[in-house]
Each structure stands twice: as structure tokens, then as C-alpha cells.
Amino acid sequence: MENTFMSSSPFHEKAKLNPLRSRTDVASFLASMLDALEPYTSTNGARIHLGHTATHFDEVAAQLEGFSRPIWGLASLLAGGGTYNGVSRWCSGLGSGTDPKNREFWGSMRDKDQRMVECSAIGYALSVAGHEFWEPLSETDKVNIGNWLGGMNDKKMPNTNWLWFRVFANLGLSRVNSPRADPNRMKADLDHLDTFYIGDGWSRDGPEGIVQLDYYSSSFAIQVAQLLYSKLAQKEDPKRCEEFRNRARMFALDFVHYFDSEGRAILFGRSLVYRFAMSAFWSALAFAFDPANGEDGVDYSLPAPLTWGVIKGLQLRNIRYWAHTQPGAFDRSGILTLGFSYPNHNLLENYNSPGSPYWACKAFICLALPESSLFWTAEEEEYPASLRNTIRVMKHALQITTNLGGHTYLLSSGQQCSYPVKQSAAKYGKLAYSAAFGYSVPVASLTLEELGGDSTLAISGDAEETWKCRRVTKEARFEGNENRWLRSMWYPYPDVEIETWLIPPTSHAPLWHIRVHRIRMQDGDRVLSTAEGGWAIYGQGQDQRALDPIQDGEESESEGTFASGGLARVVSKAGVAGIVDLSPDVTRTGQALRTDANTNLISARAVLPVLRASYEEKRKDIWLVTGVFGLPFDRSGDKHKMGWIEEWKKRPVLPKGISDLMK
Fold it and tell me: Which of 649, 528, 537 is nearest to 601 (CA)?
């Protein structure tokens, strides 16, 4: 029997009773989240204080985050005709936070100020729910709000998605006819943001030279902003709005491959503390493409095979995943925690305040649609059958996604953050990222257990005192027929270069992918150690103790760990993760490594199948070939749990183009 003692918060227990299938259900879930914030709200409503951890910006801006980010959900609820008993807290806070004479004043704008980020939610609220957030206010409050939001128009901003925050500040001010709206500034920002566009629906998060294409290019910022603008500014800016809708159609057909049939999204990149904001693109797409109250002659058609029922399923399954199955995402008072599946400060960037996770409220944009909308009246549909068991090349992202065999993940090369970000090697440099197993981050810098080295090749040149992983990738490109694999270079030491090939699964072995590494040492004298990790997986047994070693051989389907010769495998309630050495002339040893607690973002107690070796003899090139196996068990019960051993017995075949190179 599952041990449920203190395993979830009262909020989580309440959420589990909510099926989260209708607009009323989702509105109720949002209201519960908003209610939980009331005890932490200041007297005049302008600040919400949720904890004492620090950020690189000031404490007032951190408490402003707690105030503003829930507005993404609240404003949407009100825009769609809903009500919320606590709306007065935010109306009061909007007036007091922008009043220089009020003790809760947020402070005036400075160059590159964090306050700019929070303007986007407020501008959106004025645009869609001015009847609640603007009309009841006094003239003095309206002047103060206009002055505060308009105060960013002459300030310097980062050359990133931040420019969208100023666009929404001006859009909101224009919607309520504030004299502080600056249409020229808004147009200039929009024109510049269009230079981020790189084709096929994709935009990078900055000018040329920025290479990461993470969730900021989609659900966290750019795509969502474009979709909202396309709905709100159609009358004034029809040509640009049409372009944004066309981009969204193309992007949607790529982005859908980042989600699995259970509602989970592939974990990749920074700011994952925003959680269900990862699915906000689908909410914004529904809002922008709903034809009700739209302009005549505008094309609101969805790209096949996406239908209203499919979009509804993609969005609501993701919200249900968090509300129903991730109790660690909330504390016992119903506040979103700093972490992912559980509180985890190892994950955080230095801009994550206790209020930051409420960016997740962007997922509630679908509430801006009324009960009668196509989104809410559609019958929820499963993940499209035509998109299952597919492999898709993401040309611009330098990624290959796959869901063959029921495991949704991606292979990645060529992405890295263009500025210092905590744990950037883990967030951008790993070889593969999964929706089911997530990724791991280091908790320290010495032992392999501390490294959390899943889905990466770790290199040590100091007798395993420290380990290095791929962070900066060079010369990344697609190769093979129809761009079927990724090839790239990386340089852990000045005298060591590593060339890596990533080969997705095939119908012959759908649960395996292949990695090939050529390690070249310029002088041949360095002694190297390597540790290559597969998927990190939940490491507890049915008795909730650490998994035991399997005693009855490789072909056993029993729960536990198994390591023998050049392979390692882990089986738990989460699924199966394994790794096999296929190298032609190198021998590696398999190990089921218990990583340090709180390295993996999904499983706080994880086990990692690893292949390890040291190379002491002088040689110029070392060729490593690795087969990586992953099968998630679905959360509902028995699917995939029996008979997987036949898939494990299969071994992936190296493409001839790569085997010829090795010769």
C-alpha cells in the first residue's frame, strides 16, 4: 500500500478532487492558488512576500513578482466572464504599488530593472480586463499607474524577450486611453523583436549570435506574446498580427513534439521553476485563434492535425499533471515551491525569487475564453495518433525529438546560454532531455555522485578529483539521409577535443538511441577517465527503500539494479533505464550509481546507469559507442510494465555513414 502520510499538501489533496476538465474546474483550481496567497499579501495589496531567499535584484522587486505574476491567471479569468472574490486585493495593490507617496510603492524604473518584467502582466490585465483593473480606480490612481508603466519607455532594456514587456505595458496603456502610452516606442520595439525571427515559426531570444532556443522562445515569452498581441492588436496592426498567427501555425507543429501523451513536457533549458508555463503556448494559441469577436476576413484556422480538442488536451493534461501528481510543487499552504517536482534550490537561477514560480499562471490564459468558446465546448482529445511513434528534426534548435516506443525525449547539440547561468552545462549541454525522466543538476563539483551526470559524457583529467561535461558546443550540424543524426565538437581541456554523434532510435530498436564519441588527445600523454550516463530514474523500491541489486541475471524483469561487464540497468516504478557499451576496442564497466539526493529534477532519490573507464596508455584517438535505453512506465498502472525485456535484448545498429568514419 502506498504510504501517503504527509506525502502531499492540503492544497494538493484538494486539487486531486478537481477533475480539471472544464472551464469551471480550471477556474476553481486558479482560485485556490490565488486564495493561498492572501495570508502573504501586504496590507495595501502591492506586495506578496513568500520567502526569504535572495535574488540578484532587490527585495521590493521580488515581492512585486509575487504580486504581478498571478495576474496572468486572474486577468484571464475576469476577461472570460469569470469572477474572483479576492480581486480587490490586486486592484488595491495596483494603486498603492504605483503611488510614490504610498509606503508600498514599488519604486521608479531604472535601466534594465526587474520591475520591467512585471509590467507585462499588468499591461495584459489592462488590455483584457480593464473593466476590473482600471475603470473602478480613482483618477489619481490612473495617473500613477500610467506614470509608473510609462516610466520604462525611456530606459535601457536587455536586447532579449524583455522588449515584449514594454510592448505590453504600452498596449495596456493604449487600451485604457492613458496619455502615457507611447505607440512609437511600441512600434520600434516590435520592429526590433521581428529581427529575432529565424524562420519556420521560430525566434531566438535575442539578436544574431544568441543560440539557445529554449522555452523563452515559446511558452515563457516570445510565442505567447506574439499570440496575445495578434488577438489584441488585430484592428490596429493587421499585417503583423497575421504574420504572428502564421508563425504560430508553423511553430505548433514542431512544439507539439515536446509533449507526451500524459501531459508532460520535455525538461530543457533554464527557468523550469515556471513549471506549467511550459504549456502556456497552447492556452495562448486557443485565445488567439478563437474566432468569436474576431475581425471579419481573418483566417483563424488551426494547422492539421491540431484541432480544438487536441489543443484542449495538450493544455489541460499538463495542468492536471502538476495539480494531480506533483505534490512537491506546492508547500503545505498551497504556495508554489522553488524547484520543479519538489523544492530544489540546486536548480535555481539567480533571478528566481519565491514569487517567480507564478509565471506558471500563463497556463491559465485559456480562461480568457468564455464557456461558449470552441476551446471549452470541444471534447478533449488524446495526443494525435498521427504524431505518435515519430521522429522530428528541429532544424533551428539543432535538436531531434522522438516518441518512438512511448518515450518522449530529444537529442541536442549546438545550444548554450549566451550569458552566465547557473548549471548551464546541465540545462543546455546534455546529450538528451526527457519528458518522463527529466535531467539532473550538480550539487557539488567533486565526485561523480555529486555531478548528476545523466545523459552526458563526463571527463576527468585529474584522477577523478573533478569532472567536466559538455557546456559549449561547436560546429554542430545535422548529417545523414534526411538529417538523421547530429554531429558536433566540444573541448573539455585545451589539449583534448571530443567529436560527438547522436543517433535517434529506429523502428528496429525504438527504445534505444546511440551516441558515438571520438576523444582526441593532442599529445597523447594525458590520463583520462570517462563516465557516460544514461537516464537518471527513481531509485526506490516498492518498500520505499533503496533499490536492491538483481541477483537472477540480465534477463530478469525484476525491480532493482543490474550491472555486469559493459552494461548497467535500473528498473523501478518509474520505468527502465539502461546503458550498454558498444565500443569497438575500448572496454568500459557498467555501474548503477546512486546519485546524491536532489540532483534529478523529477526524482529526488535517483539511480543512474553509468559506463566508466580510464585510459592510461598513450593513444591519439579513443572511440566510444554507447547504446542508451529508456522506457517510462505510465502512471496509470500496467502499461509497458511487462514484456519490455524483449526490447532490452535488441541492440541498436550504427548507421553505415558513421561506422565508415570510424574505420
Answer: 537
| pLDDT on residue 485 | 96
129 φ, ψ (degrees, to nearest 5): -140, 40
Angle between helix 163-175 and helix 222-232 axes, rounded to 10 deg: 20
The CATH number of residue 657's host domain is: 2.70.98
Taking residues 502-524, report their average pLDDT.
93
Rounded Cα distance between 586 and 624, Å, is 7
Question: Using one digit for the tens of pLDDT, what is the confidence trace for 407-416?
Answer: 999 999 989 8
**Which residue has 495617473 as its cell numbers?**
143
Three-state secondary structure along 603-622?
A: CCCEEEEEEEEEECCCCCEE
Residue-wise pLDDT for 39-89, tens only, equals 999 999 999 999 999 999 999 999 999 999 999 999 999 999 999 999 999
The grid coordinates listed for 388 are: 505518435
Quote the crossing angle between the two packed helices 238-255 and 280-289, to the nearest 10°.
Answer: 140
**Parallel, antiparallel, or unpaired for β 528-533 and 512-521?**
unpaired
pLDDT band at 2 (very low <50, low <70, confident <90, very high): very low
**Sheet strands (E) in 370-511:** 391-394, 399-402, 409-412, 432-434, 457-460, 474-479, 485-493, 496-503
Q: Any idea which residue has 499591461 for its cell?
A: 123
Same domain, 331 and 421: no
What proportion of the chain, given as a percentage, has pLDDT over 70? 97
Q: How far is CA 150 from the centre of its chain?
A: 31
Place of cell 472570460: 80
DSSP category for residue 386: G
Q: Where does a domain end: 367, 401, 426?
A: 367
Domain count within the chain = 2
Q: Which of 158, 124, 175 is nearest to 362 (CA)?
A: 124
Look up cell 549566451; give the residue: 418
Question: Is the pLDDT reported for residue 520 higher than 80?
Answer: yes
Task: Note whether residue 97 is domain-resident.
Answer: yes
CA within 13 Å, CB half, 652 = 29
pLDDT 10s digits, 154-166: 999 999 999 999 9
For residues 145 and 264, membership in a common domain is answered with yes
Q: Is residue 417 part of a domain?
A: yes
Rounded Cα distance, 473 and 62, in Å = 34
Q: Which of 237, 220, 235 is nearest to 161 (CA)?
A: 220
| Residue 459 belongs to a domain | yes
303-321 as b/e: b if 16+ CB within 10 A: beebbbbbbbbbbbbbbbb
**Is a pLDDT exceeding 50 seen at residue 1?**
no
Domain containing residue 49: CATH number: 1.50.10.20
478, 485 contact by CB (below 8 A): yes
Residue 500 in grid coordinates: 560527438
CB distance 93 to 45 below 8 Å: yes
Question: Quick one: how many helices (H) and strands (E) in the chain?
Answer: 18, 19
Indicate the pTM of the whole model.
Answer: 0.96
Cell of 34: 490565488
Residue 163 shares a structural domain with residue 254: yes
Residue 14 CA to its chain's centroid (Å): 26
Residue 416 has a pLDDT of 87
Range of the structural domain that residue 224 is part of: 21-367
